[in-house]
Write a structure and sequence with these properties.
Elements lengths: L1 E4 L2 H7 L11 E4 L5 E5 L8 H13 L6 E5 L4 H4 L14 H28 L6 E4 L2 E4 L4 E4 H8 L28 H6 L14 E7 L6 E6 L1 H4 L4 E7 L2 E6 L2 H9 L2 E5 L8 H14 L3 E6 L2 H7 L2 E9 L11 E7 L2 E6 L4 H12 L6 E5 L13 H10 L6 E4 L2 H6 L7 E9 L5 E10 L18 H4 L12 E7 L12 H21 L3 H6 L6 H14 L9 E10 L2 E11 L5 E11 L6 H21 L4 E2 L2 E2 L18 E5 L12 H18 L15 H4 L1
Helix pairs in contact: 2-4, 4-5, 11-12, 15-19, 18-19
Length: 699
Amino acid sequence: MVAFACSARARAATSGATGPSAIGGFVRISQEGSVSLVMPSVEMGQGIYTAEAALLAEELDVRLDQIVAIAAPPDASLYAQPLFKAQMTGGSTSIRGFWPPLRQAGAAARSMLVAAAAQTWGVHPDECSTKDGTILHSSTGRALRYEEVAESAATQPMPEDPRLKSREEFKIIGKSQRRIDTPAKVNGSAVYGMDVTVDGMKTAAVAISPVDGGRLKSVDDNRARKIPGVIDVLRIDDAVAVVGEHYWVARAGVEALDIDWELGPNAKVTTASIRAEAVKAADEGTPIKALERGDIETRFKNATKRLIAEYELPFLAHATMEPINTTVHVRPNGCDIWVGTQTPVVAQKYAARITGLPVDRVALHNHLIGGGFGRRLQADTIEQAVRFAKQVSYPLKIIWTREQDIRHDRFRPCYLDRIAAGLDEQGQPLVWTHRTISGTVRRYFAEDGWPEGKLDKDAVDGAWDSPYAFPAIRVDWIRHDPPVKLNWWRGVGPTHNVFVVESFLDELAHAAGRDPIAYRRALLDANPRAMAVLDKVADAAGWHKSLEPRSGRGVSLHQNFGSYAALVIEVAVALSGEISLKKIVAAVDCGIQINPDTVRAQIEGGVLFGLSAALFNGITFDEGRVQQGNFNDYRQLRIYETPPIEVHLLDSGEGPGGLGEVGTVSAAPALGNAIFAATGVRLRRLPVDRRLLSKRESS
C-alpha cells in the first residue's frame, strides 16, 4: 500500500509511512488494485462521497468505479475542513474547502506512481502517461497497473507542487456521474448508524424530561422490569433508559415506567412569552453593527416614500429521515462509538470527558447519515448515549422515537426582523436598513460560549451581503438568546435573511409600480453573476406569460455559500386558501460543477426542504413543551404536491461554490412573492397561514 497526503499537515504526518499502518489524510492503493480514499467529509445524502472521489479520481487518472470510500476517523490535524479549521461537515463547504487539497492528493499520487514505473523501465517520467489506473509507455507499448508499482512508489519523493489538470483536460469533473454510494444503498449493504450491530449488543429506548432543563425526580420501574426481555433500567439526570433484548421490548418497558419529573426553570415557557421577550429586546436592546455605508439619516429625510415592515420566522426542527441513534461500548480501557456525526472530533472529546478515558482510547466509527441538515453537528445525543453506556458492560444501542427526535431537537433560531427603506421619485431605493433580533447558534459551539457584544455573522448572513447595490445601507443585530437550545439548520442565517430581503424588495417593487424582476435588475449593474442567473430564470420560467386568476409567479435571488441562485415559483391559490405549486424553475451559478447531476439534485432537494418549512412548519411551545412530534404536525411536502422542477446551470468559470443549502435559501421568498402575486396578500410570517389567503378572510 502507498499513502498520499491531502494537505501539507497530512504530508508531514505521513511522508515517512510506507506500510499498511500508515495513517493520515491519504490515498491508499492496495496490491489487489483497489484505490481507497479516506473521505474528509461525511456522506449524509448530499453526494459528497462521489464529488470528493471525483476530485481525486480526476487527478489520479482512475475511474470512479475504482474508488472505495472510507469514512475518516476523528483527527482534526489531518481531516480538518480548511474553511472551518475543524473536522466538520456543514455550511456547504465540503467542495469549496477540499477543491485544492484532494486534487493535489490525486496529482501527487499519480506523479509518484509514474516515477516508480519510469524507474522500473529506465525511462524519463515525461515519456509516460496514465489511464484508468495504468501507467503507459507508448513508444514501447509497455504498461504497469498502479498496484504493481504501489510499493516502490511509496519510496519516491512526494512532489511539493504537483501539476494539476486544466479544465480542458477534465474527464470526470464537470460530467454527470453515477454516485459511488448508490449500489450499496440499493442492495441493502450500506450501513447507517441505525443499522449497526455489535456482538453482545443490547438495545435501549429512552424517556427524556418533557421540558428542556428538567430533571429526574423519581422513577418507579417495577412494572417495566417484569416485562419479559427487559434487562435493566438506567438513569441519568434528565432521562431514563430501558434496556431490552430488542428495541420493541425496550419501548414497552419505557411505557411501563412511572416517572416524576422536576420540570425546571422552563416549565412556563410558551411561544407567546418567547415572542414578547424578543419584542422587548427589539425595543430596548443594543444593536451590534454588521454593515453601515452612506448617510442613512439624510437619505431617509430626502426620500419621497418610506416603507417599514416587520417579519417573523419560527423555530424549526431538522426532522431527518434517520432518527437519533448511537451505539456505545464502554470498557475499563477503551470506548467504541458507532454513529453518524457531522463533528467526529467533538463527539470523541465529549465521550472522553464522560468516561474519564484519554481521547486516544475513544474510537469513533462514523457511518452514513440518513439526513443531517445540521442536527448532527451537535453531540448532545452522543453524550446521552455515553452516559447510559458507561453504566453497563455490554455494547448499548440507544434509539430515539420520531417524537423524541423532533421534540428534543436543537432548533433553528426564531427571528424577529425590522426593516425599512426610503425610495426616490422613481421608486428606487435610496436607503435600506435591516435589523435582526435573534439568539446565537455559536454559543453552543464555542467552548466558552459566545461573547456578549460580538457580532454573530451567521445572524446577518444574506442581509449584509445581498446581491444589490443600495446607495446607503445599515445592517445590525440585537442578540436575544431565548430559553431554547439552538443549532444550525440547512442554511440557517440566509434562510431567514434572504426571505426578509427578497420579500421586502418585492414590497418596494410593488410600491414603485414596477415589475419585480425589472426592479431587481436595476440594482445589479455591478453584479454580473447575479444578473445572469436572474435573466436566465426569468426567461426559462416564462415570467411575462399570462396566468389564470388567483395564480402568480414569485422570484428570489441570492448569493450565499459561494454560489448564485435565482428561483421562480408558480402557484395557484384556491378560494379556500389552499396553495397548489404549479412549477419551479431555478438558475444556478455555482462555478465549476463537479457532478452536474448532483448539483441539480441538491437544488431540487433543497427547494423542497425549504418549501416544506415555509408551507407547514414551525416549532411552538406550551408550558415548556414542544407541541409538534411527528410528520402529521411537522409536515413535509408529499409527492403529489410536488410540481415539475427545472434546474438550469450556468458556467461562470469561477471556482466551485457550495450547494447543499442554496435551494433551501431560495424557496420561502419565492413562494411568498408568488402568493402575493396571486392574492395580493403579503406574508411576513411563516409558516403560511392559509386563513389569510381565503377569499372570505382576505376580502
